[in-house]
Amino acid sequence: MSLLDHPLLAQFIPEARELLxxxxxxxxxxxxxxxxVAAMAALFRAVHTLKGTSGLFDIPxxxxxxxxxxxxxGAAQAGRLSLTPALADVLLDTLxxxxxxxxxxxxxxRLGEDAEALAAALVQRLAGPLGNGGAPATxxxxxxxxxxxxxxxxxxPEGPLLxxxxxxxxxxxxxxxxxxxxxxxxxxxxxxxxEPLEPWPGLEALDPFxxxxxxxxxxxxxxxxxxxxFRYVPDQLRMAAIxxxxxxEDDEVLRAxxxxxxxxxxxxxxxxxxxxGRLAAARGAALRALAVAGRPAxxxxxxxxxxxxxxxxxxxxxxxxxxxxxxxxxxPTAPSVLRVEQAKVDALMNLIGEFVVAKNALAWLARRAGExxxxxxxxxxxxxxxxxxxxxxxxxxxxxxxxxxxxPVDHVFQRFPRxxxxxARRLGKQVELRLEGAETEADKNVVEALADPLIHMVRNSxxxxxxxxxxxxxxxxxxxxxxxxxxxxxxxxxxxxVSDDGRGLDAARLRAKAVEKGLIEPERANTMSEEEAFxxxxxxxxxxAAAVSDLSGRGVGMDVVRTTIExxxxxxxxxxxxxxxTVVEIAxxxxxxxxxxxxxxxxxxxxxxPMALVVETVRVPRAALHRVGENDAFVLRDRVVPVxxxxxxxxxPEPEGEPPAQEAILVVRIHGExxxxxxxxxxxxxxxxxKPLEGVLAGLRGFTGTTLLGDGRVLLILDVPELVA
Length: 725
Description:
The chain is an alpha+beta fold. It is 41% helix and 21% strand.
């Protein structure tokens, strides 16, 4: 059954993604520094929290896998296992599979038919290193002196006892923990009590979602049994071994607890529409436990019965299995969630308030104008004042809304420690990854657009750039290579740099490969500068790999990087020093929601050109245009610039009348090269929201989208690189 209709799924999905990312980061940090106590605690806490929140849904494969991962981490935390690279591989594979399940839940509301088999295989791999099932070491857990609360119990029951003090975290409920249910599972439970951690506040200040209790218990069980029960919160438990005389009153205490439990069950409604028979089973278990507790000699047997009763009572109800209707339409996926700071929402609310006030003033002005109370000149002045106010509010709202959409580039950077670790291990290389400026913010769409290009560049650096250890040592370099990802703001762009200290690019080899693959003519290769040769790696089909692998050699990669970035309004630059390394720089506009365009005329028609492509506008005498091959060209500051006519690119008729004495030329940069486009006239530059082409126009070549002009006309935005390709 799909969980897409579950009211908590939309909240669970982003939280689960965040916990998995946190787990991955902590695990990689722990692999680098096996003794990092903080990283181990963070990893354990994230896995434990995810298991707790997963319990809200009927997804046993997820819970079983997380439980097995917890057992393995518990053994590592207790020092019974070493976190070797092989062990880290198992845990990382588990996180990967959990991530795939979470995404399946987000898309379809279910895990998939093979989930149980995959979970069984994962559990087996996770249990393998434990050998003995993760049993505690023979020396047993550490014990404390008898607790200060012990005298409050009075005469102690006879025989050896274990006194336990359990202090759960104040936020334990948010991690799906049940402190009372946990301590009630103690084997041989003989006495239970609670005490507040802090004085109870007034009702108006009481937080019902914060735990303010310390749980006290006496149980007839071995310390190892209690430690196993509390293995996921070991720092919250204190134990002391004690002895004492048995009292008949103690049996009365247990009987009273069971009787109270039975009264609660009897008060519950007889009909349980969610899980028929669940309350009846719990009532029967409580009755059996009460009967056992009535015989003092059989008191130790009450533990399992009581646990069975409580387990039956506290178990989450199973959702009814309702087969889907044949006519049921596919349901939408879980909504995407963007977390926003409260201050940003408050700023938007304040601006909305200003907007409402300004709108009311506009209605007042319209009423006065309709009643002929304002002379035309004063009316024009009032309208200009109102326009200035609306313009200021609109600009502030635009900035506020854009800030809501801003994400740190760490959203993308955080996936690379794992990627670098896995690829470096596969290639037998030692690589240190350095991340700088991860807090740099950009529009959500910009950050997401960075993911694929950065993956291509990082893989290239690891495969082609950074040398194997032996080669680095022979070249006088450290055995371990360095790969750096940095981000920073430059004007209205976010700039990402990927740099390595590898072998760099060989210009001669690049020229030879390009000629061999027929990508350039030999004459052109001979006249290329070193910097121009470096740009050959952006040509489609170019590769220097000797053999095809899952990392490289297919001739796709860097051309895809450039195409993707330029379609997003950005640019890519590359520089390299042989033997020292390579730097690739990506610059993208801070926002892709608002686009600056220049409107140009082609005859009577207007078109838009993204300003990110525009270098400059010039007017050139017709006599300065010279025929070169099939097209015209002109010289701009000692540089030959080829020229194309926009009317011919769009297959439009040439403007009628006498040709102008000077041509209006829009100089754009395409793939790093300058190109002139002859237009009829230059119009205004504006900021606008570009909508993609839809319906019958979807997929129309040569255009990226549309926008509305101030007079209501639709303006087509040109895809210049595609037009001139």
